[in-house]
Structures are given as C-alpha cells and as structure tokens.
Write a structure and sequence with these properties.
single chain; six-stranded parallel sheet; 16% strand; two-stranded antiparallel ribbon; alpha/beta; 8 strands; 246 residues; 12 helices
C-alpha cells in the first residue's frame, strides 16, 4: 500500500478517514481475512521489548496512527500523519457507515458483562447495528478452541478484540486462521467506553491529542508507568531518530 511510513521500526499506513473507509469496505467485500491495528506511542514502546509483537504488527494489513506521540514522531521523520485514526473514535463512525452494508460484528474482550453492556448501548445509538455475539476476555489458552467455536457458530463479518496491547494482536494472529470472519481488529478499551464504565476525555482534549492525560488523571497508579515513563522513553527514541537525519 502507498502512503506507508516507518516510525521506530513500525510500519504506519498514513491515511485519512475516507481512504481508510475505502480500504475497510474493500476488505468487507473481499474474500481474504484482513487484520487492522491502531498504533500509539505505548504500542511502539512495547515493540522494542517484544519482537513477536513487533513482527505481528508489521504483518497486519492496515496499521493506523493513534495519538499525538505518533504524530510528533512522524514530524521527526519528515512526514506528517494526516489524521488521528484511533479506534475509540473510529468505531462509532464505522458502525454508522458499515451499517449500510449490513455487516455483522462479534465483540470479544473486557470483563464479564462489559461487552454485552457495550452492545446494548451501541444498538440503541445505531439502530440496525448487527452485533451477533459477545464474549468476555477472561479465558485461558486451553479455552481458545471453545471461544473459536462460539465465534464460528455466529459467523460474524467483523471481530473486535479488546484485550489490551500486546495480547489482543497476538490473539488475533494465533487464532484468525481458525475463525470464519473477514476483518479482525484490536480495540483496546473501547468496550469500557461504550459500556460507559470509563469516561472519555472532553472533545477539546481529544482534538489536541491529550486524552492520555485525562486517562492518567483517572487512573494514576495503573497508568503512571505507561504515560509518564513511557512518553519519556518514546520521546527519547523520537529525538534519536531525528538527530540521525540531520
């Protein structure tokens, strides 16, 4: 695919929303299984320590930029990310646009009951939305076959996996060949937001790419290492890449 850039060893497809939807609908109509990843600064930090995750991500069909960190890193690489396509903001747009194509979804991940609550809220917001199955993410590798069978009985077009990074992308990679679906994507904390368990940042913060700060304020103990130490690490490598190009 054209418009491909490299940020700290991770491939990013530099698309705007219209270009993304064109690809998404093409995947939906096609006969091949397709994978989509949303990549932020934390994801890229994880790839430095986890080669399997890095290889898996770089093998996905569509890899989209998520957040201010990736945007700043793109500037250091003398590129500019055209649009922030984070999964939490993008999913409602997908539900709105893909709804017209009659696509079906399956939700897997989150704590017990969260995916169902997210589904209930979303079908109210998007009448006609077809979410044909839900499953929490609290199962082990021994139960993978049961989960795969459950998904295959439903036969969704699109599988949304909310297990966090890097688990969700690894789970997709290791199980997609066994699952009858067309599009597989990891969506992180989207179910928690859709279920209204976690609050989104105000729109002005999201537009500025500062949602990470809002989340840090909400959960300082859990997210301190990811967002404070992690951002420092990411900026260090961004600066290092920039200085190489001077």
């Amino acid at each position: 695919m054209s418009n491909e850039i490299n940020i700290q060893g991770v491939k990013i497809h530099n698309l705007d929303y219209d270009e993304f939807m064109k690809e998404f609908l093409k995947y939906l109509k096609g006969g091949q299984k397709r994978t989509i990843a949303f990549i932020n600064a934390h994801c890229i930090n994880v790839t430095r320590k986890d080669k399997e995750y890095k290889d898996i991500i770089n093998g996905f069909d569509l890899i989209l930029a998520d957040g201010i960190g990736v945007f700043l890193a793109s500037l250091a690489n003398k590129n500019t990310i055209r649009e922030n396509l984070n999964g939490t903001d993008l999913m409602p747009k997908i539900f709105r646009d893909v709804n017209l194509a009659g696509a079906t979804f399956f939700f897997i991940g989150g704590r017990p009951g969260v995916a169902e609550k997210a589904r209930d809220n979303l079908v109210k917001e998007f009448p006609g939305l077809k979410i044909i199955g839900c499953m929490h993410g609290y199962f082990d590798n021994v139960q993978d076959r049961e989960v795969v069978n459950m998904i295959n009985e439903a036969r969704p077009d699109i599988l949304l996996v909310a297990m966090g990074v890097p688990k969700q992308e690894k789970w997709i990679f290791h199980n997609k060949d066994k699952i009858e679906a067309k599009i597989f994507t990891g969506v992180g904390g989207f179910f928690d937001f859709a279920a209204r368990i976690n609050m989104r940042a105000p729109k002005w913060m999201r537009k500025m790419g500062m949602e990470w700060m809002f989340r840090l304020i909400q959960e300082p103990k859990r997210l301190r290492q990811r967002y404070i130490l992690g951002n420092i690490e990411f900026l260090y490598y961004t600066l290092k890449d920039f200085l190489k190009k001077i």
